[in-house]
Amino acid sequence: MLSYFLLLWLCLLSSAWLGCGPDSSSSASVEQRNTRSSPSVDTAFYFSLNELLGKFDPAVHPDFARIPAPYATRPDLYLRRKAVEALVRMAKAAQAEGINLRVLSATRSFSHQKDIWERKWYERANSMPDLVLRARSILEYSAMPGTSRHHWGTDVDLNSLRHEDFEAGGPHEKVYKWLCQHAHQFGFCQTYTPLGQNRAFGYREEKWHWSYLPLASPMLEQYVAHVTDSLLTGFAGAQTATSLKIIQHYVLGIDVNCRRRE
């Protein structure tokens, strides 16, 4: 018994240095607790809850870089540095074969996604009074704020947002064929392929949306480990997230080939 109390006294005395006291983690922020790596997550990568939810400014984030002008349609497009490097390598390889890749959209913040979402939300208010049906209609092509892969700085929209432009006879038919054949060599994957055998749930097909898997895959792992539907708040229609199983059906609603790392 004496040795027990002696051990307890030593632990309390040393808690200031070793953190072994019962309240040693109580001063950690909610974000720190929510982003602590789980055993299933690769600890070589670490992303904060704000990064996963898009609540930061890529223009001032040290891990982000601007996409060079030849490959971007406007100057305010950013990705994580490694994603930019891979994108440039891919664009140069495509250019050598007469294919021009141009980024239309890259990193989008929570507030940017909120603007897109709420514009559509209020535009459809009169024609779709049912909140769940309205949210589901927007989710055909637009993500809820806090759930978009564009928050992560790993995903880009290329050349056009019109499917017909990538199909036979379209101006970007050769672009899409080249990407399907070569994008994986640079770590990129088309996340939103047609719904079917490789993708049971989620958004409609997006031939323009490509994701840099070496970073996006660990971010997805950490996202599903630390974010829940109930954490998605701060925008109109957020109350529908749980009933629609947003994370299960949309965040995880990607092509099975895009879940692995290249």
Class based on secondary structure composition and strand pairing = alpha+beta
Largest sheet, spatial ordering of strands: 3-4-6-5
- Average the pLDDT over all residues and give the rounded result: 86
Query: Element order, helices and strands?
Result: HHHEEHEHHEHHEEHH
Strand content: 5-15%
Q: What is the name of the CATH architecture?
A: 2-Layer Sandwich
Structure description:
The model is unreliable at 1-43 (pLDDT under 50). The protein has 262 residues and is of the alpha+beta class. The protein has helices spanning 2-18, 30-34, 49-53, 81-95, 110-123, 131-138, 163-166, 173-182, 213-226, 246-251; strands spanning 64-66, 78-80, 103-105, 155-158, 188-190, 209-212. The chain has a single domain, classed as Muramoyl-pentapeptide Carboxypeptidase, domain 2 (2-Layer Sandwich), CATH 3.30.1380.10. The strands form two sheets. Strands 3-4-6-5 form a four-stranded antiparallel beta sheet.
Describe the secondary-structure layout.
Elements: H1 2-18, H2 30-34, H3 49-53, E1 64-66, E2 78-80, H4 81-95, E3 103-105, H5 110-123, H6 131-138, E4 155-158, H7 163-166, H8 173-182, E5 188-190, E6 209-212, H9 213-226, H10 246-251
Antiparallel strand pairs: 1-2, 3-4, 4-6, 5-6
